[in-house]
Amino acid sequence: MEPQAIRTAARVRPGWQCLSATALKLLAVVLMVMDHIHQMFVFAGAPLWLTMAGRLVFPIFLFAAAESFHYTHSRRRYLGRLLLASWGMTLLTFILQRLVPNEQVVLMNNAFSTFFVAGLYMLFWDWLREGIRTRSPRMILQAVGGGLVPVLCALPIYLVALLSFREDVSPALIRLLAAAALLVPNILTVEGGVFMVALGVLFYMFRAHRAAQIAALLLLSGVVYLSGDKVQSLMGLAAIPMLLYNGERGRGMRNFFYLFYPAHIAVLYLLSALVQ
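^ that's the sequence the OP posted. Answer follows.
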């Protein structure tokens, strides 16, 4: 029996759960484009509702990432693809901004790095669970030690920040060193920050309990709202497509998602520079 057939047969889903993983990600792509149109053209009066719609994007993709990590045939290859994509995105944004300066837009977009770090912690969670189940101190220590690595990987970017205060170091060198430091994904400087990484890991930890996943999303959304960021708190609306997920893979279209993200960022950035 095919893996997708096994997954479908494992649970009988209600009829209203109509979105496959591919459909979820395509919905997120549409909302992502809207959000990035606002990012690139806010100086030209792009309406706020575009970025309000985009607040759902990260939770949807993180939810889909938790599913992908669980079902992937090779976690090593999965994480490797995300790391390569993260490096490519860092280089792309650095080169774009050097070749085509755009004073109205600063490119800090690299969701691949967030998915990579979240994926690492999903792996460490599995190690921890297995270590506790088998009563293996070595595996428990391996999980705890692994969890420290994405934190320590933030050191290069902070060292660059310290160098930026020195007058004998040229700004061009600082920019180059910063770009090199950003090639090392870490939990403190990834897009969305530590809270988005934590949300992705919670989605994975509770992937067999949809109610718990949605509760984690709504709790984080509530914290964000109370902190004063009412627009970002709209991320809680991602609970609706999560409820509609039917547990099926869909068409996959992996390469499309890996290519579309950097391509649409580059196109919108260049259009923004032309509009100026």
